[in-house]
Amino acid sequence: MTELRDLYQDLILDHGRAPRNFRRLERADGAAEGYNPLCGDQYRVELALEGDRIRDVAFQGLGCAISKASASLMTTALKGKTRAEGEALFAKFHALLTSDAPDDGSLGKLAVFSGVREFPVRVKCATLPWHTFKAALEGRAEAVSTE
Ligand code: ZN
């Protein structure tokens, strides 16, 4: 278990240091801003849709390693998914971090954040990008705040 945990942490460190899809989209169909005042994490998530599918998703902003790694892994997980699949993934991810729901394997690399649920303050860091993504998907204009 210790080895697994180390591996997971490596993945978070890697994505925190070298975030994927850390850019702006040339043409965004949806965008939202998210802010976690407790930690200072602040992100903008942009997405491009093709019909019902998330063709591209990217983010910008700054925050702690957990929030940045979460945003990075989120973008890699969401690309190519349908809106419904994206929302379902968010629900599963949220359940993983806020309940004792066991990982059934469907979260793939996102399961790396399961250890975060032991640190309630960090849960907000990890879920902020997802709340922001959902706001962008739903076309909500007001900024997302974890407070
Ligand atoms: Zn944070």
Structure write-up:
The chain has about 150 residues and is α+β, with helices and mostly antiparallel strands. The protein has a single domain (about 1-145), classed as Alpha-Beta Complex (Sufe protein. Chain: A), CATH 3.90.1010. It has four helices and four strands. It has a four-stranded mixed beta sheet, with helices on one face. The longest helix has 19 residues, at about 120-140. The radius of gyration is 14 Å and the shape is globular. It starts with a helix and ends with a strand. The structure holds zinc ion. Zinc ion (ZN) binds next to helix 2.
Q: Could you provide a short overview of the structure?
A:
With 147 residues, the protein is α+β, with helices and mostly antiparallel strands. Helix content is 44%, strand content 20%. The model has no long low-confidence stretch (mean pLDDT 92).
Keywords:
single chain; 147 residues; alpha+beta; Sufe protein. Chain: A; four-stranded mixed beta sheet; 4 strands; 44% helix; globular; binds zinc ion
Which strand-content bin applies to the residues? 15-25%
What small-molecule ligands were found? Answer: zinc ion
Distance between the termini: 34 Å
Which structural class do the helices and strands define? Answer: alpha+beta
Whole-number mean pLDDT: 92
Main pleated-sheet profile: 4 strands, mixed
CATH domain topology: Sufe protein. Chain: A
Strand order of the largest sheet: 3-2-1-4
- Count all strands and give the number: 4
Number of helices: 4
Helical content (DSSP H or I, runs of 4+) = 40-55%
Secondary-structure element string: HEEEHHHE
pLDDT < 50 stretches? none
Shape: globular
Count of discrete structural domains: 1
